[in-house]
Amino acid sequence: MDLETCKIKQTQATAWGNGAELYAANLHEGSGIMMPLIAAYAETARAEVKGNPLILDVASGTGEPGISLARQFPNGSVIMTDLADGMIAGAKGRAERLSVKNASFDVADAEDLSQFKDATFDVVTCNCGLMFMPNYERALAEFRRVLKPDGLALMSAWGLPEHTQLISLMLGMQAAVAPNDSLFADPNILGSREKLVHAVERAGFSNVSCREVNVPMHIPADKVRVALVQNPLIRRMAGAAD
Ligand SMILES: C[S@@+](CC[C@H](N)C(=O)[O-])C[C@H]1O[C@@H](n2cnc3c(N)ncnc32)[C@H](O)[C@@H]1O
């Protein structure tokens, strides 16, 4: 792994891990911002998956869509993984609070899933994770490798900047205060439907379909302020103690 990639991954692991509590509260708890998108995973899995699947959720953050799918398939089983141990601790905590028993957790880089054998999983999911990965092609190849030949992969990336103004605003602020601590090679690399489908097909998936899901980001101003203030890069810039 080159130095730049290594740095991006370290920044990812620290930044996401430090923000896990806030992430869960705003994006996953109750009617959290991410939940309309998570509902789309549950809906597709309900229609397409039979029996008691073994599911791998990659870049789970504080446990979605893994926890929702574990609840949907109580006789199946879900392994949730993420690069950030803070996020995995948050996912474990949420699963315990929700009495989810059919789940396990692992810190793992999506670009190297070598702890899992070929053709292991019935379902692989990755919600809003790919665009953070410096080599997302390698991650997609790993998803394909660990998925059974007739398995189902569900994944998403956010859209282009004109549809993701709040994300662009937050990334813009971060780039302004900490230009050397980027979380991304390119945050919009999979923003268009064509690019996403092309990348997935190139990784060897077939029967690929793509749908747009609108995720409203109506965040009260005080919560946006808290999110920015808690961002470790912005805190560092402001000279705040970690
Ligand atoms: C926007 S969050 C998505 C979390 C969750 N899937 C959700 O739907 O809310 C992106 C997640 O990707 C994780 N991530 C970034 N790079 C990763 C990598 N190379 N391997 C695994 N996880 C990664 C981050 O730690 C973070 O938890």
What is the averaged pLDDT score? 87
Q: Residue share in helices? A: 40-55%
- Spans of at least 5 consecutive residues with low confidence: none
Radius of gyration computed on alpha carbons: 17 Å
Distance between the termini: 28 Å
User: Order of strands side by side in the largest beta sheet?
Assistant: 3-2-1-4-5
**The CATH H-level homologous superfamily:** Vaccinia Virus protein VP39
Count of runs of 4 or more consecutive helical residues: 10
Tell me how many strands there are: 5
What is the strand content? Answer: 5-15%
Instruction: Output the structural class.
Output: alpha/beta
* SSE arrangement, N to C: HHHEHEHEEHEHHHH
Shape from CA axes?
globular
CATH class: Alpha Beta
Task: Please indicate the count of domains.
Answer: 1
The distinct bound ligands, ions and cofactors come out as: S-adenosylmethionine
- Per CATH, which architecture? 3-Layer(aba) Sandwich
List keywords for this structure.
globular, 5 strands, five-stranded parallel beta sheet, Rossmann fold, alpha/beta, 242 residues, 12% strand, binds S-adenosylmethionine
List the helices and strands and how they pair.
Elements lengths: L2 H16 L1 H9 L6 H14 L5 E4 L8 H7 L4 E6 L2 H13 L5 E5 L13 E6 L9 H11 E9 L9 H13 L15 H10 L18 H10 L1 H6 L5
Parallel strand pairs: 1-2, 1-4, 2-3, 4-5
The chain binds S-adenosylmethionine.
The site of S-adenosylmethionine has 20 residues, from helix 1.
